[in-house]
Specification:
The chain is mainly α and 401 residues long. It is built from 15 helices and 5 strands. The strands form 2 sheets. A 3-stranded antiparallel beta sheet has the order 1-2-3. A two-stranded antiparallel ribbon has the order 4-5.
Length: 401
Amino acid sequence: MDMYNDKDRAITRFALPIAQFQADAEPRGVPVYEVSAKTAELNGQSFIYFVGTKKVKTVSVESLPSELFGTDLQKCDTTDTDSLLEFSGKYGFLPSPLYDGAASLVRFRNRGRLRPYAKTEFNRYENQPDNAALSLLLNRPVSLYESLTLDMKDEAPRALTEHARMIEVKNPRVHEVISKAELAQAIRAIQCATAVASLYDYMAQATTGGSAEQMSELLNDSSQLNQRGADYFLHHDDLIVRGYKLVSFEERLANDDEFAKLASETQCDAEAAYNIALADAYRACAQDALNYLSTADRVYRAAEYVPGTALAEIGDIFAAKLESIKDGRSGNEELGTFGEIVTAQFARCFVSKTPWRRCQYCGRVFKKYREEGFHKNIRETKFCKKSCNVMYIQHQKREQS
């Protein structure tokens, strides 16, 4: 059969970089603080940043629902300040893995008289392999880069965070600081990466046999991927896809006059040709998403507290007060960031031989039952969580009555 008549172009499996994931490693706990928003200026531009003050709790991977990357994380609207505050107040700040973001958050949290916080110098990390790889994935291709606002490009999110930390560094009541831009970038990147990677793997299963068109439908389903925020891993600069966000043939035809004209003038089956290009683009984007997640997982795990030796200036009253505050500092040296937990959850889920499946009630693609612990074996169930099971039974009873 002529490949250009292959209208439904199946999604095909490829060599997945699962060996890069440390699926058996135990993620550290994460401190959660009372959070609030503040504003500041940098280079004449106002921006929002968040501060964590009184410590509320420490969360561990065992105390959290499974597959947070596909449930609670997807519910966070990264364009909305209140939504970001609500999420951070429940799970803690999720720093960017770029430009020393995770390690610097840990250092700021543990700063004190014997360990003063030093502002991150970004030029030290530009050519560092992991940073260069992550930066390339989040700031390319050209079509994606051009769609981002200035505060979301390159080192800008991290620069805003570092500026805010210098404002708060001598405030003993503030334990963590992060800019809205960095938090939004970090959460949105994981939202998109986990959705693209897991949905592609689901479509590639022999039992699913999904097509590029079906993949597009799932990615436009808000239960699978939050529809607000930057479209990381959803752009591809391809001759046919034309450098746009990846969408179905019908959606492109309806919203792009230039594409509609091109499709009408082609001598082959335009829809089949487009779906072939779309399937290949999804494959490339899924590979990028997995590379991002495995690299970010490694960076988050490496973000450790390292005791400093430099002393603050003699007579610095703040330093003495800061060192004496045990509520916010004591016991935090061994804690990590939420990024470590969410990438560990994804790694454990992704490498499992349990097949992806769709919940029979809500339709979400999943592997692990929400109420199932991190260390428990993944069991095959028709429902992604207990409430879906209950609602399905109630729905069946109503239909039968």
